[in-house]
Write a structure and sequence with these properties.
The structure holds two protein chains of two kinds. Chain A has two domains: 49-162 and 325-376, D-Maltodextrin-Binding Protein, domain 2; 166-323 and 398-444, Periplasmic binding protein-like II (D-Maltodextrin-Binding Protein, domain 2, 3-Layer(aba) Sandwich), CATH 3.40.190. Chain A has 19 helices and ten strands. Chain A has helices at residues 2-35, 62-71, 86-100, 112-120, 142-146, 171-176, 183-189, 193-206, 216-230, 249-263, 275-283, 293-303, 337-347, 350-359, 367-371, 373-376, 388-396, 408-424, 429-444; strands at residues 46-52, 75-81, 107-111, 157-162, 166-170, 211-213, 286-291, 311-314, 325-329, 363-364. The longest helix of chain B has 37 residues, at 23-59. Classes of the chains: A alpha/beta, B mainly alpha.
Chain lengths: 445, 318
């Protein structure tokens, strides 16, 4: 009885969340839909539900979806962005839907952290080869393409964006601290993370009510992914899915840096992708945040139009890295797999990805889009016309894939909880590493 | 028309009563019909109460991974639960939050009910307004309280700063997080309990108070010597109800941390219900979650028994 009550609650809360998502989408989406005259052939247009996750403008599909819906009267896209949080909410919910055989959208976004499991459970997905999407192979770097192909050869997912790396910073706050504000000068301030920390200290001496960095987790991830590239491109699991948290120097490097920043009081102690963090972005609780390309859309979305021009983008200390990036898959349970495959195809086309980049900042994984002059010369209006094309597109071709295990999402959450706990004072600094290893073992078990 | 139907009905009755073979049917009617009429409740209870309860017990004996395999585990889930620090932390959190929330809530509700029981202008409107928090959606409540208790821009921290209190991180420190959530619970449920207490108070005969007044008993004395003892049955109901609600606390602490069942970075305010949810729907360990659900059930039985014994002693036994 007890558990049934809880399941009911869970279902109810999931429903509420879904309803909210639907409501917020339909308010912007119905305009085009209702004005569409019924076409002669199909009386009722097919609705393809596209489900994604992420904060701010997330996948940046707003304009692309409006364009499709205006051009295709018979197939209408309904974009549902379910939640900010991938590991904690979106992916567990998606796994339930996929396992139970109903509930998932026709096209669903999968973060890199979920791809290990998605690949292992090929029975969840429709084979996109059946809809002729094998032809898209040439559009993507080999690693992005191959991660969407399961062991049995099924093509189940197409790449959307890739990570890339930069630092977003608040110019007005830098000025207040007497630091340079021009992006080239700012980039020159921190070729290494040690120098980044020195700048942080200088900033903190001058400015008291704003912290230099958002929290420990974003910095940890940035350093982790940079170091992973130097350590065989693995994070928590080796390529045989053995847990290597305690052995991988990349994890320790990320942890150590996050700990140093926290100990010296340079972080705002906010956990990324929470409401407080989003509010902090808007109200200026912190001056810098680690920015993979897709984070630009998150920052601009959270900060709002009032903050336009206050933010800028500088290069990241310690060289490039590839944090994040997603794929689109079509669940087998979709009633319109053919149309869903068409939509997935459209959303990953060079032209669409290029326009998403110029509008919102998510770096295309599509190599044709990467070479598009519009992408390479793109400037981001929100970030004071920062030449994001130059910043991200240059390094895009050199980015390396990072291998993530089947249980990556669970382990990542456990580790981030310890790193956040260390920052907010609930885990003592000297015990944090041991607890991180212990909790990771538990989560992987 | 009535002339026509009445005699026929009478004739029918007459005919039915006569054959002795049919008498058992009327007896069945009398004996079985009441059971048939109350059966919908029991059928529903069996389907949505008893069956899940038994099913949960069944699965608690298995190592049941939603994304993997189902294997017999015996009491393995229970033994590992009892040595799981996270489970005990969740239990301590739940019981502590229950106590922090319920004690002031009961006292407040009692005094509120006593106040509402007096002659007031706009009595009905005032009584109804006490119930308003209850009809507010719990998510809306959580959104507002989450902002009130925000670390950086929250109203509560702002007010505390007038008295020189440093900003409290309501999500990172254990006791403050309990207090914040208990506040949320109390805001929602105090009025509800007050109305039930009020209903109980209105069943207390007036002449008891009149006799006490003649004997010179003060208002306060009357409250402690008449109202409280006479209210005992109501109190038992309210306390048991709050025990069940408090020990299965879920929505408030869940929304307090962005819908994340971790309840704080280190489970500072994770309740047992959230622990179960996390194990079942994030780790997909259904067997483990089922075992935890049964332990929660036991916890509630124990809590209810203790509170029952405690409340029965209120006002002295005769």
């Amino acid at each position: 009885m007890m558990i049934s009550k809880r399941r009911g609650l869970a279902a109810a809360s999931a429903l509420a969340a879904a309803a909210l998502a639907v409501a917020s989408c339909s308010s912007s989406g119905t305009g085009t839909q209702s004005s569409a005259p019924a076409s002669s052939g199909a009386a009722e247009p097919i609705t393809i539900r596209v489900q994604t996750f992420g904060g701010g403008s997330n996948f940046g599909y707003k304009n692309a979806v409006e364009k499709w819906n205006a051009e295709h009267k018979d197939i209408q896209i309904k974009h549902e962005n379910l939640t900010d949080q991938f590991e904690q909410q979106y992916w567990p919910q998606m796994i339930q839907w996929l396992t139970s055989g109903s509930g998932a959208g026709d096209v669903v976004g999968i973060d890199e952290g979920g791809m290990g499991l998605a690949k292992a459970r090929t029975e969840w997905w429709a084979d996109l080869k059946e809809y002729g999407l094998e032809s898209r192979k040439g559009d993507f770097p080999a690693w992005k393409w191959e991660n969407g192909v399961a062991a049995d050869g099924k093509l189940f997912a197409l790449g959307t964006d890739i990570g890339g790396m930069s630092i977003c910073y608040r110019k007005d706050l830098f000025e207040k601290a007497g630091l340079p504000t021009e992006r080239d000068e700012v980039s020159a301030l921190w070729p290494t993370w040690d120098e980044y920390m020195n700048v942080a200290k200088k900033f903190q001496d001058k400015v008291k009510d704003t912290k230099f960095a958002d929290g420990t987790n974003t910095l940890y991830q940035v350093v982790l992914y940079q170091e992973a590239a130097k350590n065989g491109n693995v994070t928590y699991f080796d390529k045989d899915n053995n847990l290597i948290v305690d052995k991988n120097p990349a994890v320790k490097a990320g942890f150590d840096f996050a700990q140093k920043m926290s100990q010296q009081g340079l972080t705002a102690k906010l956990r990324n992708f929470t409401d407080e963090w989003a509010t902090g972005t808007q109200k200026g609780s912190f001056a810098t945040v680690g920015c993979p390309s897709w984070m630009l859309g998150v920052v601009s979305g959270n900060a709002g139009d009032d903050a336009k021009g206050k933010w800028d983008v500088a290069s990241v200390p310690g060289g490039g890295g590839n944090w994040g990036g997603s794929w689109l898959a079509v669940p087998k349970q979709s009633k319109h797999p053919k149309e869903a495959a068409m939509v997935a195809d459209y959303l990953t086309q060079a032209q669409t990805q290029a326009s998403i980049f110029t509008d919102f900042g998510n770096m295309p994984s599509n190599t044709k889009a990467q070479q598009d002059p519009a992408v390479q010369g793109a400037k981001n209006e929100f970030f004071d016309d920062a030449p994001i094309g130059e910043i991200f597109a240059k390094s895009a071709s050199s980015l390396q894939p990072v291998f993530l295990g089947v249980k990556h999402a669970q382990v990542k959450n456990a580790i981030e909880s310890v790193i956040q706990g260390m920052d907010d004072g609930s885990v003592p600094y000297d015990k944090a590493w041991q607890q991180l290893v212990d909790d990771a073992v538990k989560a992987a078990g | 028309m009535s002339l026509d139907t009445l005699p026929r009905a009478a004739r029918n009755n007459h005919r039915r009563a006569r054959p002795p073979g049919r008498r058992w049917r009327s007896r069945l009617d009398v004996k079985a019909m009441p059971y048939a009429l109350v059966s919908p409740y029991f059928i529903l209870f069996a389907a949505f109460g008893l069956f899940p309860l038994a099913f949960t017990l069944y699965y608690s004996l298995y190592d049941y991974d939603l994304t993997g395999t189902v294997e017999w585990a015996g009491l393995g889930n229970y033994t590992s639960l009892l040595s799981d620090d996270d489970f005990w932390r969740a239990t301590v959190n739940t019981v502590s939050m229950f106590i922090i929330a319920t004690v002031p809530q009961m006292l407040l509700a009692l005094f509120l009910a006593n106040a509402l029981n007096k002659r007031l202008k706009f009595r009905l409107a005032i009584r109804m307004s006490v119930l308003l928090p209850l009809v507010t959606s719990v998510v809306a409540v959580a959104v507002v309280f989450t902002q009130l208790f925000a670390r950086d821009w929250g109203l509560v921290n702002y007010i505390l700063s007038w008295f020189g209190v440093d900003a409290t991180n309501w999500r990172a420190e254990r006791v403050p997080s309990w207090i914040a959530i208990a506040t949320m619970v109390d805001w929602r449920w105090t009025g509800y309990n007050a109305i039930i207490f009020l209903a109980g108070m209105q069943t207390i005969p007036r002449d008891l108070y009149e006799a006490a007044s003649i004997d010179g008993a003060s208002r306060r004395r009357q409250f402690w010597q008449i109202t409280l003892p006479m209210l005992r049955p109501t109190m038992i109901f309210v306390v048991l109800n709050s025990t069940i609600g408090g020990l299965t606390l879920f929505a408030e602490p869940m929304t307090f941390y962005n819908g994340n069942p971790d309840g704080g970075s280190q489970g500072q305010f994770q309740t047992v219900a959230m622990f179960i949810y996390k194990e079942a729907f994030r780790e997909f360990d259904f067997g483990y979650a089922s075992a935890a659900a049964w332990l929660l059930f036991l916890l509630i039985l124990i809590g209810a028994a203790i509170n029952f014994l405690f409340v029965r002693r209120i006002g002295g036994t005769k």
